[in-house]
Amino acid sequence: MSPLLSTRAAGPGFLAPESLISTFGLIGVLAAVFAESGLLVGFFLPGDSLLFTAGLLVADGHYLHQPLWLVCLLVGVAAVLGDQVGYLFGRRVGPALFRRPDSRLFKQQHVARANRFFARHGARSLVLARFVPVVRTFTPIVAGVSRMRYRTFVAYNVVGGLLWGVGVTVLGYFLGRIAFVRANVEFILIGIVLVSVLPIAVQLLRSRHRAAAREQRVR
User: Fold this and answer.
1) Nearest to 175 by CA among 61, 62, 53, 79
2) What is the percentage of the chain residues whose pLDDT exceeds 70?
3) Half-sphere exposure in the Cβ direction for 211 (13 Å, CA)
4) Between these two residues, 5 and 73, which has the higher pLDDT value?
5) Which 8-state DSSP code applies to residue 149?
6) CA angle, 121 then 124 then 127, to 5°
7) Per residue in 39-61, pLDDT tens?
8) What is the DSSP letter of 178?
9) 133 close to 195: Cβ distance less than 8 angstroms
10) CA-to-CA distance for 30 and 107, rounded, in angstroms?
11) Where along the chain do its domains lie?
């Protein structure tokens, strides 16, 4: 196994980026990106760390032997198609999605969070949400439920999919050529995970602060 794959810190068991890539190769990367981009069950997949690891492995020549341009092209296509499916699902299901009961793989809080994100940022949310775990899975679905104009959705979807899919992969590729990064890849992946969840943590803190402020005004 490559030294780059010595860590499982970015995910447990088979969901760890190195496990997915070493087992399924590029097909596994594309399937995970597609699922996380618009399927309800894909929110738990390690999108950011998976793409970064894919870039590292392309640079290192382990498991992924395809050229960088081809990996980026296919990742971008998978990300865009995933959102397309999410949007069409949202249009088909409609408001019923907000009445769906919670289950092990579905939580209303995820839909509500994506809905607030979409309401705040509008069409731009399709780009911004790409860099926020969980929210990126549900935002295209909420866009479909809201019956966002299809042409507008496609334009922002393509921009967001390419910025995220290609950008994170290329970042991993070039940083993977730096000796320090190669020697500390475990900490790099942990850092990516922490940065990925930071927007969610900030949003939760702001929500709690606003709720506390409202309670004080009521008193």
Assistant:
1) 53
2) 65
3) 6
4) 73
5) -
6) 125
7) 876 666 777 888 988 998 898 88
8) S
9) no
10) 25
11) 24-218
Q: Which two tokens stand for residue 16?
A: 């760890």
Structure tokens at 97: 């999605």
Instruction: Provide φ and ψ at 13, rounded to 5°.
Output: 55, -135
Predicted confidence band at 1 (pLDDT cuts at 50, 70, 90)? very low
Q: Which residues contact 6 (CB under 8 A, 6 or more apart)?
A: 185, 186
Query: Which H or E run includes 104?
Result: none
- With beta carbons less than 8 A apart as the criterion, state whether 175 and 181 touch: yes
**How many CA atoms does the CB half-sphere of 140 hold within 13 Å?**
33
Q: And the tokens for 6?
A: 């010595």
Q: Report whether 99 contacts 92 (CB < 8 A).
A: no
Sequence-separated (6 or more) residues with CB below 8 Å from residue 40: 89, 105, 106, 137, 138, 141
pLDDT 10s digits, 162-212? 999 999 899 889 887 777 776 666 666 666 666 656 665 666 677 667 766
Cβ atoms within 10 Å, residue 105: 10
Q: Which helix (H) or strand (E) holds 128?
A: helix 125-128
β-sheet bridge partners, residue 103: 106
